[in-house]
Amino acid sequence: MYRVAALADYTAPFAVGAVATLRIAEFFREGTRTAESVAAESGLDPNALQRLLRALVAKGLFSEPETGLFSLTASSQFLLDSHPWSLRSAYMLMPADVCAWGRMEYSLRTGRGAFEHAHGQSLWRYLSERPEESAQFDNSMEALSRLETVWLVDAYDWAQFRTLVDVGGGNGATLVAILTAFPFLQGVLFDLPQVVARAVARMETAGVEERCRIESGDFFVRVPEGHDAYVLKRIVYSYDDANATRILQRVRSGMRQDSRVLLLEPVQRKGSGFDYGKLLDVQMLILGGGRVRDRHALRGLLATAGLRLRRIIPTPMAAIVEALPE
After folding, report:
1. What average pLDDT does the structure give for the chain?
2. Which residues contact 286 (CB under 8 A, 6 or more apart)?
3. Do residue 59 and residue 116 come from a single domain?
4. Does 233 share its domain with 187?
5. Residue 236 and residue 316: Cα distance in Å, rounded?
6. Dihedral through CA 89, CA 235, CA 111, CA 140, nearest 10?
7. How far is 84 from 305, CA to CA, in rounded Å?
8. CATH code of the domain in which 63 resides
């Protein structure tokens, strides 16, 4: 009974989201403080803040060395902006997502995305019309993939290519990581105009702007042609089979016969052990109507687009799915 109660409690996810959104961890960066002193500095209600912190002490996110005094733990360090592996942006509250999760019953009854049911449009359309929320979404994806990218860079021989296209590459974080690790590689960042506009400063800061061309467009219509490799990170699993096939067909039409396509996304594994991909599979159902596929489903999906699955390289987070033209 206690296990069910613990699993069903959604206090912690919302509380962590509030800490991330309001940058509460930053106020404890210098050491132990009272809720009252933090509230006076942050503009929050002291009683409400103390109740929040006490709840998160019970979850190990904060500590209370003395009654009424709170401090960071090893876990809450990851909610600091200054931490090299900061996850703060990944867990900021997005009210539109919360609303969609509240309609989960719709997805379970129909098999369709609750986000579109709740908002009358797809997640991608919703973000395209709201620049601030779109930027927040990009920052969230970057934070989630920061550790993931470290493994992806080391797990594959990127040096074999001369040119690499990051299809739907967002703000360019993944492409920057690959180009930084492989200084002879040329890159193309390809995404919608309002998305790639945010990548210019990142390229300049990383010092890769001379090796990376930014190109805008819609991957449902076309992708840059004639490059060695095409990377789609967390793209295909975000869509249902019909739309995923359309994307892959556009990529295939832009590839040479010796090009490769690399899907960087979770792949479902067999067995009953913990599998992050199985959790993301439900997330895709609610937010986008997509799904996390297993090896068999990926092979069939790629085949419909004229691609042949060559191998799947597992990493602790996402896998690298390598495919070749038929």
Report:
1. 93
2. 100, 101, 104, 107, 113, 114, 115
3. no
4. yes
5. 19
6. 0
7. 39
8. 1.10.10.10
